[in-house]
UniProtKB/TrEMBL annotation:
Keyword Mitochondrion among UniProt keywords: no
Gene3D superfamilies the UniProt entry points to: Tetratricopeptide repeat domain
Source organism: Massilia mucilaginosa
Classification via InterPro entries: TPR-like_helical_dom_sf (IPR011990)
Keywords: Signal
Protein name according to UniProt: Tetratricopeptide repeat protein
């Protein structure tokens, strides 16, 4: 049964606090939560501190923080986490009216009918709730407490067309020097290895499906790219992943595992697997700042180019600065890439950094600006007797986007991107300019 708008966790809390707060003064309930006995009697002037009505400011703040965390778990579709946090809160303060009500609702949404009914009865006996609270409990009782899906699945699609000045990442240099030191020879590159410009069309889709009541999310992504002339650069990709929220010792975050396939020019080009852990430390930076850490490990297998196979470790951090109309995200991290024996250049180490700004323009238009840099350094010479230097790679990307909502679920988007790939080996150095106009539809 669909929950009425006024029965969401936050309104329920406000109703409960307003209607049930007088119960805090009832001596019968206070006796049930008196402080535990100690070996030595407390001084007379401190005796009032042992009652729930005289909690210290620090205790009140801790209880309120735990309660807000429980409400957040409810709103994010994790009633099991909310249940644990509310139970801990009631161990500290059995007269927290809102916690009693939300705990009963959490058990009802988890399908624990007997426990939910027991808690509803306790609320009726202990707090003498108002008519509004009785109506709210009647709604959940009428639902049968069969368990409810707290988050809906979502789908989005994107259809676009654009132009790329270098679809094949062709070399910026027309010649290349190959050979051992002191015996270099200059060669002219074929046209296929030089930049090739082309128009393209792209279709992509995303699908998110909640699983169970623990906030688990199934993620599926599909993408198809087609060029007008350079068909060898046509690509298809598919990704399937699972994401789960977690919390512990004040930390919160999400854990993700994903597997993907990429086809290039009609052949399987890459198989990739990834695990990623994102974490938000228990540091209060205020509403305008958000700080998170991440750790990821991925593998990439190239069926037709096995010496390219790689395993990459990524350790990163990001800081979000929010205002009413904009969000700026700064990110950076360290990279370590271990290749197979015989891979040109051997293992690599690197780092990355970036800044991304999203801002509301006027009433509806959304602008996005981004800049990033990624650097790699090879561990040994790239190829003996051919390219006898260690490869150093620096890739700079500048991005800009404008999005204009059209109707309820759709939007038009214009995007531009400029890439500068600077290398000490001219053969791999390239530049590109990319433009795309697309229509997207979200939240289906």
């Amino acid at each position: 049964m669909k929950r009425p708008p006024w029965s969401s966790p936050l309104p329920a809390m406000l109703l409960a606090l307003a209607a049930l707060a007088p119960a805090r003064a009832q001596q019968g309930d206070a006796a049930e939560t008196s402080a535990p006995e100690t070996s030595a009697p407390a001084p007379a002037e401190a005796s009032t501190a042992d009652t729930p009505d005289a909690l210290s400011d620090e205790q009140v703040a801790q209880e309120e923080k735990l309660y807000l965390e429980a409400l957040r778990s409810l709103s994010e579709g994790r009633p099991d986490e909310a249940t644990n946090k509310l139970s801990r809160l009631l161990e500290k303060n059995a007269l927290h009216a809102g916690a009693w009500l939300d705990l009963a609702i959490s058990h009802c949404e988890l399908g624990n009918k007997a426990e939910a009914e027991r808690l509803f009865e306790q609320i009726e006996q202990r707090f003498h709730p108002s008519a509004a609270i009785l109506e709210l409990m009647a709604h959940y009782r009428a639902s049968g407490c069969k368990g409810q899906r707290t988050a809906a699945r979502s789908m989005s699609f994107k259809l676009g067309a654009g132009y790329d000045t270098n679809v094949n990442q062709g070399s910026s240099s027309s010649t290349v020097e190959i050979g051992s030191a002191g015996a270099l020879k200059t060669y002219t590159l074929y046209a296929e290895s030089r930049p090739r410009a082309d128009h393209f069309k792209v279709l992509s889709g995303d699908f998110n499906q909640p699983i169970g009541s623990r906030g688990m999310l199934l993620i599926a992504q599909l993408r198809a790219l087609r060029h007008s002339e350079v068909r060898t650069q046509d690509s298809d990709s598919a990704l399937l992943g699972l994401e789960r929220p977690w919390s512990g010792a004040g930390w919160t975050g999400r854990a993700t595992a994903a597997y993907g396939l990429v086809r290039l020019g009609g052949e399987l080009y890459q198989r990739q697997a990834q695990v990623l852990l994102r974490a938000v430390p228990p540091v209060d930076l205020g509403e305008s700042l958000g700080w998170s850490l991440s750790a990821g490990y991925s593998t990439a297998i190239y069926p037709t180019r096995r010496y390219y196979d790689a395993r990459t470790l990524d350790l990163g951090t990001s800081l979000a600065v929010r205002s009413k109309k904009s969000t700026l995200v700064l990110s950076s991290g360290l990279l370590a890439d271990q290749g197979k024996e015989g891979r040109p250049g051997g293992d690599r180490s690197g780092w990355y950094g970036g800044a991304n700004l999203v801002a509301l323009l006027g009433d509806k238009a959304i602008a996005e600006l981004g800049a990033s840099r990624q650097s790699w350094r090879g561990a040994r010479i790239y190829s003996k007797d051919f390219i006898e230097i260690k490869r150093d790679q620096d890739t700079h990307v500048l991005r800009a986007s404008l999005l204009f909502p059209v109707g309820t679920h759709s939007a038009l988007q214009m995007e531009v991107r400029r890439t500068f790939n600077r290398e000490n080996i001219p053969l791999f150095q390239y530049d590109s300019r990319w433009f795309q106009f697309s229509w997207r539809t979200d939240n289906w």
